[in-house]
Please model this.
Amino acid sequence: MAQIIKFTYPTGKIFIGVCFNAGEDDFSAFNWPKFRAELATLPVYQRVDYTIRRQVLWEDDEVSSDELFQRWQDIVSDNNADDPETGYNMPSDNLKAVCNPDGWRFGVDGCRAGWFYIGSQGPDIKYGIVRTIAELFDRFKNIAEVIIDIPIGLYDKGAQARSCDMLARKALKPRGSTVFPAPVRPCLYADSYEEACRISERLTGKKLSQQAYNIFAKIREVDELLQSDVSLRTVIREAHPELGFCKLNGGNPLLTKKKSSDGIAERLVLLKRYLEWAPQLYEEATSQYARQVLAKDDIVDAMMCLCIAQAPEREKETVPAPVIHDGQGIEMAMHIFSPSQQTGD
Model:
């Protein structure tokens, strides 16, 4: 079932979005900065307690992605939703991928050479390394979803931890330390670990771990990409592989370390239930790439992310639910695959 939906906000302006195949409402074309700025001009009583009206304008059980996209464009135009005076719609060519359930779906994990990806589109499976996430979009067209193991959505200041980090650590006890606390955004631009700690202490009252600092460049890369291209915010989404494996293991955290031989083997057993080719691809990738380029656990983590990306929509969940957004309108949530029925080995 595909739907085109009209949202009416307390500012009096509208937004036209879509909902495809009983998934989430898509807001990739929503002008979040403009809405937040205009909401701030309303009286306090309207800012703190307001209702958004959701109206289904059109729906169809059998519509192609191209037809849905064209119908969405027509309805946006008919309602003047892309006129800044009346609406919050922005151009969103990437909505074509959102409308298309047959687009490429990727699991991605950072590696020493950049980013290791595994993608599926129907029976086609591709894997490789790209230097940047933007390069993945240059290499593949019609990308429907990218699930990536990196913090997405950050606070700009304050000592509060992201809800997704706290909930993931709780779910993973006694392995909760595998979830690194996400930094506040200004720390990403420090020139050294010492400077990052000073910034963090000034803005949050807390210092940073060296492990967390080591992935700052990758966090910054994804954060800047999502700030510059709003349409990618419903395509690139965060996951934590250990939380993903916990869900596939009936809600029980894996106690083996993911870098150990036993840990790799345990995780491949779980993955094979949903990606039958997982052990074979793991052997191929470990043979193709040297360890100084790609670690073994990077391959397994990327496969876990792909498992989430290609899961049925009805079996996808977020931590927390509903999703929280940061000050830039970027979601702060981990996506998970919660199978309705656990399969055997």
